[in-house]
Every structure is written in structure tokens, then in C-alpha cells.
Amino acid sequence: MRFDTKIAIAVRGDLEQWQKLNVTAFLASAIAFGVPETAGKPYEDGSGNRYLEMFRQPVLVYAADGALLTTMRERAAGRGLPMMIYTEELFSTGNDDDNRAAVGAVTADELNLVGVAIHGPRNAIDKVCKGAKLHPLWQWCTPAPVAAALIGL
Hints:
The protein has one domain: Bit1, CATH 3.40.1490.10. The chain is 40% helix and 22% strand. It has 6 helices and 7 strands. The protein has a 5-stranded mixed beta sheet, sandwiched between helices. A two-stranded antiparallel ribbon has the order 2-3. β2 and β3 form a beta hairpin. The chain is globular, with a radius of gyration of 16 Å.
């Protein structure tokens, strides 16, 4: 299925594996809460147990360096796309209030980005993510025909 929109998450490639997973999870939660139309319907198994909704569409995960993450944030902001950032300082905070204070303590051009999540029209996301490479683990775990369909090949 081809969607009109894309969800893209880019993480800095030099992070430790646990950091990449942590950043990806937190950024995905921002899209889920901030862009409610990305959610599908609740699940139910054959025994009647109910489960929460997931995204209704795939999430593309990219690897990028800090400079490209900054460029991606600027491109997304320039297009007015809903996005979330994750800065290196958030690894040393322990709660949401401290996270917001750490981000609020610096200007946009001073953000030490380790991740960015963006949602928007397919063509806009493609332009925002130009130069980023699909994360090697995303490519490894996604069958080639599915990956090609998702990224529009």
C-alpha cells in the first residue's frame, strides 16, 4: 500500500546501539501523540484480548551525522512540517520537565541534535531527508520489495 504521507526518523550514526533505539522510540512517540491521524485502529487477538493502536503506516529510519540532522530540522521547519528533536543533553536528564528545560536552554542553531522525527507529504519528506541513508538495520530487516515500495523506488 502506498501512503500519501511518510514518517521519517533520523538518528546520528555514531551513537551507541542503546542510544539509537532509545532516540528512535522517543521520537516515534512524539509523532504518535503529535500527529494523531498516524495511528491505526486497536488490535484484538482471537481470544478477545485488546491491544493498543500502532502507526497505520511504516516508519522510515535513517542514519545521518549531526550536520545533516541540523539541515533536516531546518528543512522541516521551513516547510512547517510537524517534527520532534532529540538532543545529546537528553541522555543526561531523567524526566520530561528536565528534557524540555534542556532543549529550551539553547537556540535552534545551537541544538546538539542526535535525532529528528518528521511527518508530512511524501515529496516533502523526501526533500527534507535528502542526503540521509536508510539506517543499515532498517534495510536489513525490511524485505527488498517492501522497502522499494515504501521509499518510492
